[in-house]
Amino acid sequence: MFLNFSLTIFSIFYMVGFIGNAMYGLARNEETEYLLTLPIDRRSLALYNILVSTNSQFYTLAFLLGAILGYTVGLGLNIPIQVLKVLLHVYFLTSLSSLIALLLGGMVSKEFVRKLNVLLTLALIFFYFGVSYLYDAQFSGLKVRDANIERFARWFLFVNTDYNFLSWTFSSKTTLLLGSVLISILASIAFFLLSPKLAFEPVVRKGVQHFKDLTMDLAKIAKNRRPRTRGSNAVFWKDWKLLQRNEQFLFLILYPLGFGIFMVLVSAGSARYLSLPFIGVSVFYCAIEAGILLSRETSQKDFALTLPVRLSSLFFPKLFIPVLLNVGLFFVILMFSYALNRLDKFVLILAPIHLLLLTLSSLVGAYFSLKRPGKGKNQPFDAVAVFIVQGITFGLAISMLMPASVLTYAKGLSPLEILIHRTILFSGIVSSLVLLVLFARKLAKLISGIK
């Protein structure tokens, strides 16, 4: 059980990280265009990027090797044989990942690769849990009576089945072991045959077909073009387009959504299981989203100040969009819970608390993006500000959601316990309102001082 579970988890992280890095290296860029003019074989360039991607997964391999060696020593197994199996497993994962990265990375742009990497990271993890959830596990021998425990047990039982191809290299069945070897060899052969043809290959459309495609694209743009808007509406759509083009926003939005849906599936959908995990993550991400939008605007403030709009109209959408998005995610998850008939009255308490925390976090994130800006393009504030934002968002979320959950679900509480939890909940709400007013004033002062 431990061996197969460790193999599966580390293999998922290895493949996700490897494919993402390899696709990014194999995507078209100016550096590879220059290298292609030199007498260097394309297969060599592809192999070089694969080696670099393998090196980037050093820590994952180190953890995997440590888990295998600990398992081997604990059971008194043959260490050299287990090390050879680890090498075979790494070769199996690398050959598959290399072929996937080659087929996808050599034909797309870097911007698309970054966004696809985010989707791949989320999809692969949730796909594994989804498949294992559908697996018809037998629980009669475990004497499981609780539905929640049964759902969690299902994840662990799936890793020991023959359907889990990520553990074939350590399988005691010869057919599965030979199958992993055969897949590795075939993937390697396909990589060597395809790398000279597909790696770094630019997509070129010629002649009449190119003209037709260009005409169709222009017609589609003209058809879908929005009428011109003014003032805050124009700024809103500008920030919305900026959000859509930022690959980091894709992760900040999809991760809370996927995580919330996953919690609904594995925890009988009770709203209390969404309170801290989902709301805590979405509130913190809301601060990051507001900080990114505001930092992008202030990085080009000389141009922004020339626009015929007021400062309030220029900066308000950057606070409103993250709040609106995360409220929408919360609504989607609630509708998903309702469709599964897993919605309870605790939502009536969660909704206003979530909205209050989101509003506060957007102000906090925007404030620290101006007060303590980060160095990178996708770093809205520095490391110190990150800890401050985390402390404010998670601290207030815990101070309100935990006592609210206890007051709603706990039975047999004494009058003193009820008073204590109500006091903590009231203190959290008051603290949030005070901080909201405080950061709103501080942010308004910083914005008014921008020249």
From TrEMBL:
The keyword Ligase does not apply. Keywords: Membrane, Transmembrane, Transmembrane helix. The chain crosses the membrane at residues 6-26, 47-74, 86-104, 116-135, 176-195, 249-268, 274-294, 315-340, 346-370, 382-407, 419-440. This is Uncharacterized protein. It comes from Fervidobacterium thailandense.
